[in-house]
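Hi, here's the filled form for the chain we discussed.

Project: internal
Contact: R.S.
Residues: 231
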Amino acid sequence: MTQSSTPPIIAIIGCDGSGKTTVCLELERWLNSVHPTKLCHLGRQTGNIRRRLIKLPFLGKKLDKNITKTNKQAKSKEGPNALLALGIFIMSLRRVYRFYRMLSLRKQGFYILTDRFPQVAVIGGLDGPDLTTENPASSITRLLTKLERSLYNWMINHTPDLVIRLNVTVETAQQRKPDHRLESMIKKIGTLQQLTYNGAPIIDIDNNTQPIEETINQAKKAIAGKLNIVS
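And the returned structure, exactly as it came back:
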């Protein structure tokens, strides 16, 4: 295998239900047999938090309604108030922290495999900035929005060496993840096709009906070609 001065970043992206977790875990095991590799999750995982909250007895439905109302306010023409914007910004910092930790591991010489990757092509889309209003009414919100955008621009300047995009239909995603919101899945799948990651090479894999083993084999082949791995 040809060693480069900087260890590679391989990003696995896809909608919920596309098989990212299964594929990432198998690729991590395989790559570790070649070179020390770290799997890094670069999402905020706020969706998981919401799904746990709405399952709470008695309070779940009310919390879900409040979260939906808050999301609408955050995306309004005026934008979120300062307190809400601060909460959104803090959640974005979860991704920034994970990204910084990933870069630290990369500097230590590890190959990096990521589950998800930040982007700025679609504001408010999958793995994009969450403060979406361009000119919010609150001066504090404007400041936080500018700061969030600058942090995302910093992250995307670290272009992945290879992006593997796992594609599924809305129907397949909903069947595999019935507890996920349909509206969110439709938006994520639509966003995926618009992402370019600074011109990084992207390999598209259809993971609708083929066995997951075949999807994993296709991903391995793409990575092996990029890293000059000889089996």
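Let me know if anything looks off before we file it.
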